[in-house]
Structures
1.
Amino acid sequence: MPFIDSHCHINFPDLANNIEDVLAQMKHNDVQIALCVAVNIPDFPQVLALAERFENIYASVGVHPDYENEIEPSVADLVALAQHQKIIAIGETGLDYFRLTGDLEWQRARFRNHIRAARACGKPLIIHTRSAAADTLRIMEEERAHEIGGVMHCFTENWDVAQAAIAMGFYISFSGIVTFKNATQLKEVAQRVPLDRILIETDSPYLAPVPYRGKLNQPAYVKHVAEEVALLRGIGVGEVGTATSENFSRLFRVPPK
């Protein structure tokens, strides 16, 4: 059965230093594709290099909201970097009021630029939101994010937020968090999101799913996310794998393997 890891950071040292094994484990676990997501501009060449080297690795370009003192790309910069055929998304971008405090207008300005870049280059958004759902949805609406769509990655919000994002044409991506026992609200969301709007991811090297919780995560483990979603919905894991792979292909315009 096919699986796709729609969000990982295999350019981070713990995975990049063992990339051949990471790819071998993906193959062994039927993970056909992984999307390596950029978090800043200085490390973007490493992300792109992996996508260029491996046929089944794709990449994005963007600056994560946690990176305060970073090179701030303009809309034109992002659009230019996104022209490469293996760059299939803009992000990850968004808002995070959990880790940072104070005047975060720079975060909101960066988010707006990423949405504008996505609309300009015609590639979907990868959105991160933490403790900032209201502002995230407001800026998405103000900047007409619905015109390009994308994914709410590593979703941890409630059903109302999921509904609002889906109404704007966004997919909801579940990470290993959905396998955690205390993720009651998230498990409910995983039961309610239409199957044709679900993606699965690892966000590796972070957030390893049960039974690997607390250990180094990798794209091969995305099947455990699929298994939990299947269990919650009362369907076969093959159905989740097929549906989420088709959703990924449709959103990011990547032909199925």
2.
Amino acid sequence: MTPHFNVGTTVGSPGPKPLDGIRILALEQMQALPFATQLLGRLGAEVVKIESPNGGDLGRSSLPAMEDPSGRSVGATFLRNNMSKQSVAIDLKSPQGRQLVLDLAPHFDVVCENFRAGAIERLHLGYEDLVAVHPQLIYCSLSGFGHALEDGSASPYGEWPALAAVVEAMSGIYEMKRSPGKPPTVSPMGALGDISTALFSAIGILAALRLRDATSKPQRVDVAMFDVLVAMTDIVVNFSSLGMKGTMAGVGIMDGFLASDGYFILQVIREPQWAKLCDVVGKPEWKDDQRFASRSAWTELLEPEIRPVVEEWAKDFTRQECCEILTSGGLIAGPCFSDDEVINDPHLADRHMIVAMERTDGLADPVLLPGNPIKIDGLAEGPERRVPWLGEHTDEVLRRELTLDDATLVELRSQGVIA
């Protein structure tokens, strides 16, 4: 493994970041909201994360994992989404714990949560509760199916727990992509549902900050994962309305092909591209063959005729060579990389997209994490801090924000309110 950018280092000239001074109190767990707040933190925001004293963020228990200095598991989901945050362990089920959050809220610009819809209100930490103590608050809720709208209407799925795969399935894309007679492929792109929802949440928070500054009024941002996935898989609704229901068969060729050292992908969805492919693979006569006169025909004849010809041509070249030949011929192609190839890719190295965090459990190789894909001229990247251990900053934050003294902290800890 070749780490390209280490936690604690800075690339570029240090200076102000666009969200310097913005403070976020995050009642969050798993991936969608933690990714959003981590992204905002990379742009300069300060993020204080509230976790349960009993195990913390559920992402800590995911696998694979490493151990923290106390021997507790820190799972991959948590490691990917919590760089440079402060962790405060508060029991939100206790009245004193809830009061601590209400006392903390006025010290922050944004309070955000991704509890199951209705759960945060039952804890008396919903929008109305927080705005009562912080009249200029930005409150962002991220859930599977959103909260009730102003007219009182609510989702029929509102009580369902929703992880990424659930809303991905409900978006229609699994059925559209499913091979006949086969079950759907679940989570084909890792965290598509989580990270896409995170990005819309981050945009919503940024827009709300702008609106609050213009109006001095509180703002409520409500992002439903199901809504986001319908937006991300936009072809499902759009293609259906245009007569292509539940299929992509008429689109053309979008598939993987075998070269001498693995697979590359090729996309042929326009007639001029088809003509170029015929020339590259040595089949110029196919350009005038009426069997291949439509895009749907390319799909129908992919397996019996097109794939054997393309792969016979490709067997003498590597994936990289195939893609260089195809792209130089005006086509769209790219190699299918392995994990090691991604980690050692020169493009990613130049753009500081692989971040290395030193392990704390005695193993030499660092934990590797994706970097920040937002590049702004003149804006330095880093320094980032490692993920926080559970409750690592509890005393520090409560002393700083609420001026609690040692005796009070000891008493709260003895009661299990904080950890």
